[in-house]
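Bench log, entry 3. Co-assembly request; chain sequences pasted below exactly as received.
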Amino acid sequence: MQSTLEQQQQRTSEFLAQRHRLMAYLIGLLGDAHAAEDIFQEIWMRLAAHQADDIQNTNAWCRAVGKNLVLHHWREKGRQKISVDSELLERIDQAFDEDDDRDRGHRNRKDALGECVKDLPDHSQSLLDQKYTQGLSFAELSKSTGKSENALMMTLSRIRKKLQECIERRLQQEGLAL
Amino acid sequence: MNQRELCRELCLKLHEPDGLNAEAQTQLNELLATSEGRELWVRELSFQADLIDLLQTKKAMPENFAAVAQAEPIKPTPLVRAPVPTMPKALRFSSFLALAALLMVALFMSYYINGIPTKTGHTTLGQIVSVNGVVHLNRGPLNVDLFAGMMFKEGDKLITGQNGSALFKYDDGSIIAIGANSDFAFATQSQQKRDGWDIGLSKGVLDADIRPQTKALRFKTSALGVEVLGTQFSIHANVANQSVELYEGKVRVHANEKTNDLHLLTPGQGFGKDLSNQQSELFTLPKSDWEEVTVESTDAKSQTLVVSSELGTRTLRWAKASPQLTSTKEVLNLDFVNFKVGQKLKLKLQGLACPQILEVVPIHSSLESTK
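Structure output for the full assembly:
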């Protein structure tokens, strides 16, 4: 029989192993990686305080708690971003529920992504950095680069496409599942 | 535009300050109406989350590690560094405590789960950079496993087990490392000085690298108070004796609050107090000497190495951690430097809980073969 400490450690490991899925869900709702990180940690505090036996599906439980926290976050910010469309939220939940059954080979995909980012030219890496690390909007990028917002969006879209194709190519070459 | 392109475009718009407008929401709703669309959307979001994680990890990687392996070997010198002070016996999470903790959780769970305020209202002070072994965070009635990347708040406490240690960074850039068997309070508003902060170490060991402060900051053990302004030092607190070692800057040590027994330390000095007879003394720190270690693992985000030597297995950190270091999401990345697992290094170290690497050179195989 597992000790309480072992159970806690197993729970922590399982939770962290699913971090990428939960973060994808939260970023998908919030569009803000920093706010998503805060809510991710709040979910952990609540999960750790909850009796494990009560939870049938940890992923779904975490998303449900996460959704409530996102709604609360929106109310706190007094906003707006996505006026809460319940049908849309249900469909997003459904998308992630269905995805729980699929094995994505996430580790392989992320490793491949790391290699693909390294292969990008410096200016593409710089644009990704400004957009996703510094969190600049297209309007802010437009001011600093002198390019139009649409042109920047097109460029970033092409970079993402290139990265996704690169990941698929690498995984296929190594005989790994997409 | 096919569905995949639509996913990509919607994901880009999602990150804009105004988010998705009504038209984009309609497009997303239609996309999610089909099974294929839902799968693509999750895949796109997962890609985006990975990309953000990867870019943030990459940004936090230290640049100063890479030069290390090119350094010339030096002639080995005898190891004379004093052993790390022996810590108290392991912190045991007994079944009684576990039961008590569960009862506490049961009592307060409904408030925390159902009661809506998501934040305690306390200030977020910083972020956990790395965690080794068993480390618990206490926040109000909650007691949870600590992991790298978590934020800590005013009033939070941290307890490390026998082999536990943690490194964390305050928002002002100050870094503290806590060693094994420690009981630590991140910060609370000072009881003595308005606008001041108290940081508590009721037992165990810590290393601190504190940025210049505008408010009074005091580290407190059961027997000593250490006032700091901007400095590097270590504190060791156990039942029998307590001490402070200063490496940079200045600290003022209060050895006895009632008699106003104050000692101003300068770099290279230490102050110790024997609690059995209440005797205290100022002492000079021994100079750092070369120590030979073997790399067990490396962690780019936290800028730490786990090494083994005749003193045992320890976690070490790079001196002057990057100010850009803000979060730790990727735990182990063994390719981040030229350090390799199994590589032998010679180091000069400073500190007790998670010693800083002051200097490092690799021991080349040719050198080893001559030994």
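The radius of gyration of chain B is 24 Å. Chain B touches chain A through 62 residues (CB under 8 Å).
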